[in-house]
Each structure stands twice: as structure tokens, then as C-alpha cells.
Specification:
The chain has helices spanning 12-23, 66-72, 108-118, 143-148, and strands at 4-5, 33-35, 41-43, 57-58, 75-87, 93-95, 100-105, 123-129, 137-138, 150-153, 159-165, 168-179, 185-196, 201-206. It is flat, with a radius of gyration of 21 Å. By secondary structure, the protein is of the alpha+beta class.
Length: 210
């Protein structure tokens, strides 16, 4: 069974992880030396920077039921196999290689949470990095939610598998970051709902929405 328990679970911690990776590249304005008419030089002032956009805050109305979530995570006979990739404008494909993938049972709390973060409780993309709006901040996230859900890790090719899953509906969540061709950091968080029953193997392909 490839599940692991980890306090770094889904969405908000995932966003923090991706943002840390994105910020590691540095976004500070560069200073340059420019010529002036008399042949001397002067240090140019950095171009004024736009004020950062403030993240939207969300307060969830549904309480988290840990017993319900754990009950839905009881062992079963189903399997979910998938890949998570993002194709860049130039054709290069980035994957979730080495990054965690989280299995979250569908509950009233997780559905509201996914809708708050992704604008959908079926399938969504959270874009991070240059030009992207800051991810929403959940003001009352239950810390137990972050500890309850199993994870696996993507292979080098961006594939993952969850085995021994009970019948029911689940959210699959992952994310990864990269450096774009222009040197600017980019990243995506991906979420997709799946339904399994009767000992089936479900295959999914997770990709950013256009």
C-alpha cells in the first residue's frame, strides 16, 4: 500500500510549498548602470513595482468531521492510477515528479474547501507565479484535516497510484513548480474528483485547465 500519513496534506500547505519554491528564484528588481550625455555614468533607479495583490480570504461554514473522513478512508478493493503534467507554450512537458499527491474523501467540508481554493469541487487548477493571482487564504482551516489524508509520491515520469481504496468519491490533489523559458518561476496546483466502486481501477490524467 503506497499511502503515507503526513501533516503537509492538501491545498493550503501545498500552496505554501509551491510558493516557497517559486520565491527561491528571487523576484527583486535589478539595478543597472546607464550612460549620460557627457560620457559619465549614473546608477539607474529601479522601475517602480506594482503593489502586490492581496489574497482573497475565505471562511468555511462547514465544520470538519474527522470521523467521517477516516471512515471513508477505510481499506477497500479499488485503485486509482494517474499522471499529473503541464505542457508549456513551447511544447515542453513538466510533471509532478517527486512531489506528493493527496487522496481526500469527498465530504461537505472538503467540497466547500476545494470550491474555495479552485472555484470548483469537480476539477480545478490553481496557477502560481508571475502574473497569477495570489491563492486564497482559508481563515479557519481545521489542522486535523491536514493530518488525516494519505499521500503518495509521483514517479520520475509524473505517475502515481493509490491502492486499496474503499468505494466512494475522492479528490486527488497535487502541485509542482518550474522555471519558465524567460527565467520566471511558475507553478500549478491540480485537483480532480474521482469515483470508484466494485474493485475497479480508475485511470486519470491531471492537467491544467486552459
Amino acid at each position: 500500500m503506497m499511502h503515507t500519513r503526513h501533516a503537509l496534506a492538501v491545498a493550503t500547505p501545498l500552496v505554501a510549498l509551491l510558493l516557497a519554491a517559486l520565491l527561491a528564484g528571487g523576484c527583486a528588481p535589478k539595478r543597472s548602470i546607464t550612460g549620460i550625455p557627457d560620457g559619465g555614468t549614473q546608477e539607474a533607479r529601479p522601475a517602480p513595482q506594482a503593489e502586490p495583490q492581496r489574497p482573497r480570504t475565505v471562511t468555511l461554514s462547514t465544520p470538519y468531521d474527522s470521523k467521517e473522513a477516516r471512515r471513508k478512508l477505510a481499506p477497500g478493493r479499488n485503485t486509482v492510477r494517474g499522471t499529473a503534467t503541464a505542457r508549456l507554450p513551447g511544447g515542453e512537458v513538466k510533471t509532478c515528479a517527486g512531489k506528493p499527491v493527496t487522496l481526500v474523501p469527498v465530504t461537505a467540508y472538503s467540497s466547500e474547501r476545494m470550491f474555495a481554493l479552485y472555484g470548483s469541487d469537480d476539477k480545478g487548477t490553481l496557477r502560481l507565479g508571475q502574473g497569477a493571482a495570489p491563492p486564497p487564504v482559508i481563515t479557519n482551516d481545521d489542522p486535523q484535516y491536514l493530518a488525516d489524508h494519505p499521500q503518495t509520491v509521483c514517479t520520475d515520469s509524473g505517475a502515481f497510484v493509490f491502492k486499496d481504496i474503499a468505494d466512494g468519491q475522492f479528490f486527488i490533489v497535487t502541485g509542482f513548480a518550474w522555471q519558465a523559458a524567460d527565467g520566471k518561476p511558475q507553478g500549478v496546483g491540480l485537483m480532480q474528483r474521482v469515483s470508484v466502486s466494485g474493485g475497479q481501477t480508475r485511470k486519470i490524467e491531471m492537467k491544467p485547465k486552459p
